[in-house]
Fold these 4 entries.
Entry 1:
Amino acid sequence: SDVCSSDLDKLTVRQVMTVFELLIEKIRSVGGQIVVSAANGKIKTVEEVDGYYKITFEQENTFVPHDLMRCQTFTGGALKSYWVEVFAIDGNSVLVERSEFGTSLPAVGDEVVLMGNTTNKKRQNLIVISATDDGQPRVDVLNGVGQKSFENSLRARFGNLDGIEDPWFPDGVKGDGLY
């Protein structure tokens, strides 16, 4: 059979189109970091209720009690960052004690991700893909994030290894590779 290749600028199908293999090529870019974890959300509403922030998401809530929910953005010279523990679930909302927040408060449009859990070990893992201005692109696999810190949680890194401290390597770990 002959191999046929052609380009189309526009295709309109009014009834039925059967495709045995479809390849869509698209380049996407995300500045900063991508976090792969068991929960995330974009805040739809925030209300203060009896010493808590009741945070409702645009989509179905995927957080559970004791999840460590993190938001971090840097826009226009302003840094917004909070890393808070979910106290309870109320339908499609989470309750977080007001005292968990510092100067950065939850707001409509904030995107939050699960970055650990204080009690459930199955929710203490995540993957962080970073391509930031620090010149150290990397993919980190973390596990054991049971507090608002990544200390002792790095299980593997692919990419730039600068900054890893490990007693097995007293001179430090540097350059690119797999750790």
Entry 2:
Amino acid sequence: MLHLRRHFFVLLIYTLAALALTWPLARNFTTHMAGNGIDDPALGWNLWWVKQRLVDQVNLDIFHVGWMFHPVEINLAFYTLTPLNGLLSIPLQAALGLTVASNLLLLSSFVLSAYGAFLLSALLLAPAGYPSQIPASHSPLPTPHSPMFFAALLAGVVYAFASSKLFYAALGQYNIASSQWIPFCVLY
């Protein structure tokens, strides 16, 4: 149970950091998408299109659209469609709407990036021989009073809240800011 509290504590810190560093997104969470109004509408359209095509039209081909330049059908294979974000947004859009779904995906990209980097760093900073020499009942996370804990926590902050990621999020280019899966891929 103690190790679950450590995970919750780390996720809470990263969530608060994401809300603070993306301010005023939290204030306008249900009315505005993050961005400068140039790329964010197109990436919001991407989320809408994936849901529209898969759920409302019941068509698995998300890479062809005839609505954008009607009557010419265009291929979206080389467009910044972000199908994974679109798939993840479908239940969020159905329950909360497009704007909130987009904002939740953006905030979760920061929190998950930080958390993944934290877990990866904690594993890399673990004593030699881990996990074979440590009983399965013990948490792989260092204790919060340990220097390794703060080093892993800082690694998550550095990875998730790098100026380049915040810059792309501020421009509304969520496709470039979606780097949350990289630490998990390396970890597993």
Entry 3:
Amino acid sequence: MVITSYGILRNDIDLIKSYRFHYFILDESQYVKNPASKIYEAVKLVEATHHLGITGTPIENSLIDLWTQMDLVNKGLLGSLPFFKRHFVVPITKNQADEKEAKLQKLIQPFLLRRTKEKVAQDLPPVMETLLYCDMTPEQEQFYEREKSGIR
């Protein structure tokens, strides 16, 4: 098992790509939303039997974010990037083509588990807040005052 950050994966891809993994799980996978990024290129080089992407925001800026997510976990489902742009992005964003949007929804629906905030909130423990006041040492207080004055 290897647990790493996206930055380390990008930097150490030559070592990591020499292994084959059973599962490759991308947490906060929206960080790999740019298909032209070095991180995306590195992630594509990792070989695994199964791929899983976990994100709370599969689409942050454009439908390309969705294509990238799906390409990482289910290569080919939405076609190549030029195909996806031509058949989905342009018709949906420029022409408001409802039938294309419905087709896209139907394609990706079996591969997405979407839980609404209301459903997730039921599984979470109640929020607990604790305020703890502690005195600063004279050195900390002096440093704090100096930084505060500098910011002003």
Entry 4:
Amino acid sequence: AYGLVQRDEQDRPYSMIGINFDISAAKRDQQSRQQTEQTIRQQAEREFVLREITQRIRKSLDLPTIFGTAVREIRQVMETDRVGIFKFADNNNFEEGEFVAEAVGNGFEAILGAKIHDPGFTEQLVRYYQQGKISVAEDIHTAGLRDDEVRVLAKFQVRANLVVPLLNGSELWGLLCIHHCAAPRSWQAIEINLIEHIAEQIGIGIQQATLYEKVQSELAIRWRAEEAIALQLRQQRTLGAIAQQIRNSLKI
């Protein structure tokens, strides 16, 4: 059996959903059965995490809420040391950015708010990630990474790295970074597939929130314009009333 708590927009638990698997008919030895149970549990857990994040994105247009849920749930299901969301600078300078969300285990350095400057992030890498491609390193010291990239990752205690692009439509918005710090790690295909699906949902959330922010900004501009017009009309009416009073006084 496996269960998962569902939370609302304020991260308050409101219900629990679960699933039971009947494996009594499996004619395997104990070791094989335990492996089957573990595989089933992991699959169910990943499906629940994807569903939870998708539901949260559909319910909320608040990016901090979406990001907070995503990094927390991913770190739990991946059983890894750190999960972070990295956002590139707004001026389309892909050499700069910062981590805007993070979930990190005890004993490892927090990087929330850490600003990164990477002159080696070339246009070729931008196009690579814009095509939806990912970066997988089981050990940063043997993965063929650039020396400066290894130094940056080692500074944050990273030993194994999984990086998936976050797209706002067709534009590269940021990166979803999975860090394993304690030791090298072999990333499984099912894990990579899960992170890719989650990154797609986060991208949808970013796109929706960006559109909502744009609409709100346009509405605010329109409201200010309407207020200015209304103020001008009130001033004209006031001036008209004063002029009429002056004319009446002159007649008297």
